[in-house]
């Protein structure tokens, strides 16, 4: 657990989490009342922006940095993940594994290697850019409710990154993940029913977040050095949006110092020169797609199960 001089802003985090949860409920309630397409568009934009804030807090919980009390950290992370929607303990394992696999052959989506199908790699990469990555995670809730054992690497041996993720999952969390996936269906079913949300309003609002979240997932890593800690970059948008997204764009600093809370990231590593490129331009550059690489970088943690 981090201590001085980088304490966890626990009260701020809890206040933000509770405020965001209330905001999400208001957005979905308003989706049931909305009549004009422009109202739905505004609600979708609001959810896309502020659910990425929720994901930034959820990300803190994945690193045990949302609150120093473990139970509070887990509870808030779990509730925020329901609005993703996905099981918190599944997202956590995927993200902690990302810190181990980053820029290795097991997680280099901007390259394809000898023996790999370039067509599949292009489809996978553009799926990240257009929101399909999020859709796959959201739809996996159904498999998880049926049985987390369906998330096995033997079903994804055609795709190395997916196989690497599934091989790192810890079976001790299977029942917790299954319960959290069930809570996703209960919460969203209750909102759609009680708020009388037209199904297309619901889909548009969730998909707006899904697109932005998915599009942001690789923008900080595209064409960076093939190094597990330094294979990321710091980016920026507008100052207000960077603040709303809780410094998530200080991504290289997060990878170098994953135990430092979000609020301190702009102030650490001051001895290094940290240029911050445009997030929008970085996203547009990704549309050039993956390319062939003869360079191979081994995942040194390939056999590690997430604890």
Question: Can you tag this structure with a few keywords?
Answer:
3% strand, 307 residues, two-stranded parallel ribbon, mainly alpha
Short description:
With 307 residues, this protein is an all-alpha fold.
For the biggest sheet, the summary is: 2 strands, parallel
Counted beta strands: 4
Distance between the termini: 16 Å
Fraction of residues in helix = 55-70%
Count of DSSP helices? 12
Order of helix and strand elements from N to C terminus: HHHHEHHHHHEHHEHE
Shape: globular
Content of β-strand: under 5%
Overall mean confidence score, pLDDT? 94
Tally of individual domains: 1
Strand order of the largest sheet: 1-4
Q: Uncertain segments of ≥5 residues (pLDDT<50)?
A: none
Query: Could you tell me the radius of gyration in angstroms?
Result: 19 Å
Structural class: mainly alpha
Describe this structure as you would to a colleague:
It is a single chain. The chain has 307 residues and is mostly helical. The protein has one domain. It is built from 12 helices and 4 strands; from the N terminus they run ααααβαααααβααβαβ. Helix 1 packs antiparallel against helix 2 (37-62), helix 2 runs antiparallel to helix 3 (70-82) and helix 2 (37-62) crosses helix 4. It is globular.
What order do the helices and strands come in, and which of them pair?
Layout: H1 10-33, H2 37-62, H3 70-82, H4 88-101, E1 111-112, H5 118-130, H6 132-146, H7 160-167, H8 174-194, H9 199-216, E2 235-236, H10 239-244, H11 251-256, E3 277-278, H12 279-285, E4 291-292
Helix pairs in contact: 1-2, 2-3, 2-4, 2-9, 5-9, 6-8, 6-9
């Amino acid at each position: 657990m981090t201590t001085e001089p980088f304490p966890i802003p626990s009260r701020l985090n809890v206040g933000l989490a509770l405020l965001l949860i209330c905001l999400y409920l208001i957005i979905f309630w308003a989706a049931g009342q909305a009549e004009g397409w422009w109202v739905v568009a505004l609600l979708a934009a609001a959810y896309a922006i502020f659910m990425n804030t929720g994901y930034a807090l959820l990300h803190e919980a994945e690193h045990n940095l949302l609150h120093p009390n473990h139970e509070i950290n887990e509870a808030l992370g779990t509730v925020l993940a329901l609005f993703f929607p996905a099981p918190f303990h599944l997202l956590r394992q995927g993200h902690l594994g990302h810190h181990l696999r980053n820029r290795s052959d097991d997680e280099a989506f901007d390259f394809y290697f000898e023996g790999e199908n370039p067509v599949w790699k292009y489809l996978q990469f553009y799926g990240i850019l257009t929101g399909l990555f999020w859709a796959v995670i959201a739809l996996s809730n159904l498999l998880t409710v049926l049985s987390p054992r369906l998330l096995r690497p033997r079903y994804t041996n055609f795709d190395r990154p997916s196989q690497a993720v599934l091989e790192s999952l810890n079976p001790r969390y299977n029942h917790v993940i299954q319960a959290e996936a069930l809570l996703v269906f209960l919460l969203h079913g209750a909102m759609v029913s009680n708020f009388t949300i037209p199904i297309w309003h619901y889909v548009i609002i969730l998909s707006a977040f899904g697109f932005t979240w998915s599009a942001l997932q690789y923008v900080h890593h595209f064409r960076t050095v093939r190094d597990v800690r330094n294979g990321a970059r710091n980016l920026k948008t507008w100052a207000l949006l960077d603040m709303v997204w809780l410094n998530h764009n200080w991504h290289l600093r997060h990878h170098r110092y994953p135990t430092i809370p979000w609020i301190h990231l702009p102030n650490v590593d001051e001895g290094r020169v940290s240029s911050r490129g445009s997030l929008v331009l970085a996203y547009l550059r990704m549309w050039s797609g993956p390319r062939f690489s003869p360079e191979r970088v081994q995942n040194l943690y390939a056999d590690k199960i997430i604890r």
